[in-house]
Amino acid sequence: MNFGRGPSVVLNVGGTRYSFSREVLKDFPLRRVSRLHGCLSEQDVLEVCDDYDRERNEYFFDRHSEAFGFIMLYVRHGHLRFVPHMCELSFYNEMIYWGLEGSHLDYCCQRRLDDRMSETCTYYAAEEPNGGPEGKGRRPPGADGRKWLERMRRTFEEPTSSVAAQVLATVSILFVIVSMVVLCASTLPEWRAPENRSVEEQSRYTAESVREPSGIIEAICIGWFTAECIVRFIVSKNKCEFVRRPLNIIDLLAITPYYISVLMTVFTGENSQLQRAGVTLRVLRMMRIFWVIKLARHFIGLQTLGLTLKRCYREMVMLLVFVCVAMAIFSALSQLLENGLDLGTKNKDYASIPAACWWVIISMTTVGYGDMCPITVPGRILGGICVVSGIVLLALPITFIYHSFVQCYHELKFRSARYSRSLSTEFLN
């Protein structure tokens, strides 16, 4: 270091001081601190830190002091972990400022960071192009086009990001509601085709159904959903990631059956296999129920449910294992007590263990249809134990799932409020 005096330097990070010798700064593990060694003037120093005291040879950084303390533990001991009760993304931002990367974190913290970034869709860059003072006022080539694509992407992905996004979300919700009403109405007896039609009549009816009012409404809704999906695919940043997203897969599952049914109608015509194709068409048309899940893009409640299931898959698997183990035990015992002993009170409902599994799952979930029940005293005692154990086993993982649901709801609500604030600013401007 050719700037400053004294054998040592002092780093003041958020009010906490650290003293180092000049030789240590040359090979310091933190890139921003090591840059001080090559500073030749006070202007060079102020590009690295926020302020400088020449008299005390003290360099001031207006950063999080506790986060820097954990980073210094990494410098001394080689282990970097998150600060307790601090947002992972905020700590990662501090790491980038000092010149560290996500790979410097311990493995457990790397997984936490990856999960956090995938949930919030937040991406950080170590060095922003043209982000320095000398880069202000200059735009790289294609910046206007990227900005337009980003606005389009937010319009289609974030319903609260702008007025146009809210209008688009409202129109999409109306199309979903209309399509669901048409789907429900098409199952009414007055709307369904008579079952005693001949093959030729069914063929003619299937071919002309698209020209009916319900078919026209369905075609309009499908056209809107298809156009929306295509535009969202075009403006997406990562096409592969777009295809892998669950909501986009659901959109594809909701749109594809319509086109398959149209193609089947065109190619079957008056073929003798039309009756078999008619069953397939009814199944494909009923898959339109997936359109209801499209509402998850516009309602925090459905998004919270999906995010909770994603985070609590371990607890859900554990709950499923509990139920399966209990079902195997109680079904075997109930079949033995009600049918296997054959003491004059043979219950035919429990003729096999698979048949008894139905009674066990209905009893453990406290539904109790009453279609089958034990008639022996030992069987009734076992039924009471089965019900009580079902309540206990189902209640054990619920606490973890509930806390995760509350956390997911607050995170999504905070993100929605943030976009609403930006929407208010855009409206005022």
Automatic annotation (TrEMBL):
GO molecular function terms listed in the Swiss-Prot or TrEMBL record: delayed rectifier potassium channel activity; potassium channel regulator activity
Listed GO biological process terms: action potential; protein homooligomerization; regulation of potassium ion transport
GO cellular component terms given for this protein: cytoplasm; voltage-gated potassium channel complex
Subcellular location: Cell membrane; Cytoplasm
Membrane disposition: Multi-pass membrane protein
InterPro entries registered for this protein in UniProt: BTB/POZ_dom (IPR000210), Ion_trans_dom (IPR005821), K_chnl_volt-dep_Kv (IPR003968), K_chnl_volt-dep_Kv5/Kv9 (IPR003971), SKP1/BTB/POZ_sf (IPR011333), T1-type_BTB (IPR003131), VG_K_chnl (IPR028325), Volt_channel_dom_sf (IPR027359)
Primary location group: membrane
Keyword line: Cell membrane, Cytoplasm, Ion channel, Ion transport, Membrane, Potassium, Potassium channel, Potassium transport, Transmembrane, Transmembrane helix, Transport, Voltage-gated channel
Source species, domain of life: Eukaryota
Annotated ranges, domain BTB: 7-116
Transmembrane segments: 163-188, 215-235, 247-269, 289-309, 316-337, 349-369, 381-405
Entry-linked SMART domains: BTB
Family statement drawn from the similarity comment of this UniProt entry: Belongs to the potassium channel family. G (TC 1.A.1.2) subfamily. Kv6.3/KCNG3 sub-subfamily.
Classification via PANTHER family: POTASSIUM VOLTAGE-GATED CHANNEL SUBFAMILY G MEMBER 3, VOLTAGE-GATED POTASSIUM CHANNEL
Subunit structure: Heterotetramer with KCNB1. Does not form homomultimers.
Protein name: Voltage-gated potassium channel regulatory subunit KCNG3
Organism: Edolisoma coerulescens
Gene name for this UniProt entry: Kcng3
